[in-house]
Specification:
By secondary structure, this protein is an alpha/beta fold. It folds into two domains: 2-152, Rossmann fold (3-Layer(aba) Sandwich); 184-490, Alpha-Beta Horseshoe (pyruvate-formate lyase- activating enzyme). Helix content is 48%, strand content 15%. The strands form three sheets. The protein has a seven-stranded mixed beta sheet with strand order 2-1-3-4-5-6-7, sandwiched between helices. Strands 8-11-12-13-14-15 form a six-stranded parallel beta sheet. The protein has a two-stranded antiparallel sheet with strand order 9-10.
Length: 503
């Protein structure tokens, strides 16, 4: 029996070639271990119906399994319908974050046969075993099915307590050299599952409430298991120069992290990057351990530089002093400091958007990752936007092209402009802050007025946004820019490797 995963990954520029999906890799690993054949259709650019069906015929799978986020679900609906039109006998399973949060909506697509409503490893294995042996598929926990048009619901599977029991993610179904991280000679792993925080813009809380049922939500693999996977992947891709960790907070458990840093620097000896919260990173003991192990870039969720928004509607409970201290310690130990930022939040005006740019300037952030706020269904912020009648029916497929909220035209133009040119704007304020005090005050005020002008927004910003989108959608121009970025990253990684050898 053959299972073909379909990964909608249509986010980014015309030169975007996609990223590794850990969930699909794990599902494929589980199925292969049980003797099933798996393959992948990885779609990172818009695809025509003819080309899509051509790939279906090449794979000729018994079951097609989608993993989808909310922005990608519109693609999934179309592609699932194309599968049925090409061959009505083919079965279709949909899983992923959107399926967990909105199973009824997923089943509103007539082409879908099964919906996975929780962790997918054991439900998909049970489904494939039932199909292989021609047994009933109804009643599998964590898998909703249809019978004569009626949805048959089941409770979720218990969460997997011991993550070490899972096989390592199958990376061989991905074209590694073609992936964005492959081009940068790096790969990603994940040491844990779950986040203990309840940020109202994140779907983590809704997922936990949907599937955890008082079970242990945050789970870590053993350090030895993580190290073994990294060693295995390094054998597959010996050209690797950098490793990334997907975990929300790698240092969440202090004892685990202490063991990890000791074994990582002993057995792996490659620079790595990870995600952290500023309140963990602001502890020098943690930052020092990270550096000694080989961490050369850390990313925190700053989200908003405006304290009222950050600790109000975003409920980050993070003071500016703690954020600045986390940045200071990273600079002290030579760790690149990066931030996740959002613009286009409900209640955010020009001044609040610029607060985020300015805090990054004061932090002297090495890297910034900026997205436009997306109101995920079943989150507290989605409910807030709904109550304030801010939601529109716009279809947004990524987090850079526009907003789903009902802002006026100048505000939309400004949001997109700041997102597109966040780093240059940050550098501009960084220069301003180096000016003498009296000059700095007036220079900052002039720039604030310029960036907050509605006339500038609908003329200059709109025109620049159009040019930016044109470059982004042009394969040659986007490729050239990505090439320049890779050169810069390659040089930094070489410097990181040199510093590791010296230390």
């Amino acid at each position: 029996m053959k299972i073909t995963f379909i990964y909608p990954d249509v986010i980014g520029s015309a030169n975007y070639t996609g990223i590794f999906n850990l969930g699909i890799g794990l599902l494929s690993g589980v199925l292969k271990k049980a003797g099933f054949q798996t393959s992948l259709i990885h779609i990172s650019q818009p695809i025509t119906k003819i080309d899509f069906i051509r790939q279906l015929k090449r794979e000729n799978a018994d079951l097609y399994a989608f993993s989808t986020t909310t922005p990608m679900f519109n693609f999934v609906q179309d592609w699932a319908q194309w599968i049925k039109e090409n061959d009505p006998s083919k079965l279709i399973l949909v899983g992923g974050v959107h399926a967990i949060l909105n199973p009824e909506e997923v089943f509103s697509c007539p082409a879908v046969d099964f919906v996975c409503t929780g962790e997918g490893e054991y439900p998909i294995l049970a489904l494939c075993n039932a199909l292989k042996h021609k047994q009933a598929v109804q009643g599998i926990n964590g898998l909703w099915t249809k019978e004569k048009g009626k949805i048959i619901k089941t409770p979720n599977q218990a969460l997997i307590k011991d993550l070490d029991q899972l096989p390592f993610a199958d990376r061989t179904i991905f074209n590694y050299k073609n992936l964005m991280e492959g081009k940068e000679q790096m790969f990603f792993v994940m040491a844990s599952r779950g986040c203990p925080y309840n940020c109202p813009y994140c779907c983590n809380q809704s997922i936990r409430e949907s599937i955890a049922e008082n079970q242990s939500w945050v789970r870590f693999r053993s350090v030895d298991n993580v190290i073994q996977e990294i060693q295995q992947v390094l054998k597959l891709y010996p050209q690797t120069k950098f490793i990334g960790f997907y975990d929300d907070i790698l240092a969440l458990k202090k004892d685990w992290f202490a063991e990890f840093t000791e074994k990582y620097k002993k057995y792996i000896k490659l620079p790595f990057r990870c995600n952290m919260r500023a309140n963990y990173l602001a502890k020098e003991e943690i930052t020092r351990m990270m550096y000694e192990a080989g961490c050369r870039r850390v990313i925190i969720g700053l989200e908003s530089g405006n304290e009222g928004l950050r600790n109000g509607i975003l409920q980050r409970n993070m003071s500016e002093a703690v954020i600045l201290e986390s940045g200071r310690l990273c600079k002290k130990y030579g760790i690149e400091f990066a931030t996740f930022n959002m613009v286009g939040l409900p209640g955010e005006g020009a001044a609040e958007i610029l607060d985020t740019v300015k805090l990054n300037a004061r932090l002297n952030a090495d890297f910034t990752y900026t997205s436009i706020f997306y109101p995920f269904a079943k989150t507290a912020l989605h409910a807030l936007c709904e109550d304030k009648k801010l939601l529109t029916d716009r279809i947004i497929t990524d987090y850079v092209e526009g907003s789903m909220l009902d802002f006026d035209h100048p505000t939309i133009c400004r949001i997109i402009f700041v997102r597109n040119f966040f780093r240059p704007l940050m550098n501009l304020y960084r220069l301003i802050y180096k000016l003498p005090k009296r000059i700095k005050k007036y220079a900052e005020k002039i720039i604030d007025l310029f960036l907050g002008s509605k006339i500038i927004a609908v003329t200059l910003f709109a025109a620049v946004n159009f040019l930016f989108a044109t470059v982004r959608d042009n394969k040659i121009l986007a490729g050239f820019i990505n090439w320049l970025k890779r050169i810069g990253k390659s040089r930094k990684i070489s410097m990181f490797n040199s510093s590791l050898k010296k230390s």
